[in-house]
Design brief:
This protein has 311 residues and is mostly helical. Helix content is 66%, strand content 1%.
Length: 311
Amino acid sequence: MRTAALWMMLVLAALPVFAADPVSDEEAAQALKDFDLAFRSKDLEDRQNAVYDLHDVPHDKVIAKLDRLLRDRDVQVRNVAALAMGGQVHNPAKAGAILLKAYDKEKKNPDVVASVLDAMREVGFMGYWPEFKKALKDERSDVVIRTLDLLGANKDYRTLPALLDMYKVAMPKMVKWSTGEVKVDTGSAGDADAKAAKAKWTAKYGAGGSKAKAKAKAKAKAFDERNFDAQLRRCVKAITGEEFDNAYDFEEWYIENYLDIARKIAEMTGADVRAAVARAKVELPELEAKMEKERLKLEEELARQREAEAE
C-alpha cells in the first residue's frame, strides 16, 4: 500500500472529528469511476489503495459503495473499506449504522473489528450503545482497547456504569490473585495478602492439575480486565475530566455527579432533560444505599481477615 495511505491509517485515531460537507455529485461520480477502474487490478495492494482513496470523498453514493465493499469476499478489502468509511463524516448516522452491521458480522476477524471501531471514532458515531457493553468484555485486547478509545473520544456518559464495573475488577481497593475469582485484603504488610489469596483460591478451585483450576487459569489468560487499567483510566478521564485511583473513588464521584450525568446523557441523546433529571433524583437514594452496603461489606471482610490473622 502507498506510504501516504499507510500513514493516514496509522494517525486516523488521533484526528479530531470535524463536520464536513459532502463533495458534489459530479466529484463523487468521477471518484467512483476512478475507483472502478483502479479496483480491476489483479494486485491486492492496488485494490486496497483504490478503496482507501474513497476515504477523502464524503458522499452518500460513496457510503453505498463502501457498504458493498464491506461485504467483499476478501477480508483485506473489507478491512480497508472499514477504515475508508471513517472519512464519511458528513453523514455519521448512515456511515455508523453500516459500520455497526459490519461489527456484528466481523466478530471473528479482529483486524476488521478494530478498523470498524477506528472508523466509528473518526465519524463520531454514537449509536453503538448499549450493544458495545459486549465489546468491553471481548477476549481480544485490541477490541477492548479500541472500544475504550471510542468511548473516551465520544465523551460517552452513557457508558460510565459499565466503566465503573470494569474499574471494580481492574482497580479495586483490595488485593486479587491469579484469576480475579477471589478477593483478600488482610491489612498486613509484605506478601500476606498474596499468600492468603492463593490459599483461598486453591481451596475454591483445588490444587494440582484439577479441571476447575485449569479452566480458571485458561479464562484468566484469555481475558483479564486488569490488563486494561491504563486505557481504562485514560477513557474515564476523557469522559469525566477526573482521574481515579480505584473503583471506590470513581463510584463516589459518580454518585455525587449523578444528576449532572443524567442531564448530559439526555442532552447527548436528545431526550427530555427535565424528565431525565427527575428520574435520576428518584434513583439516587438507592445508588447511595448500594454504595454504602458495598463499603460495609468490605470493612467486614477486612475485619474478619485481621481477626483470622491475629489468631
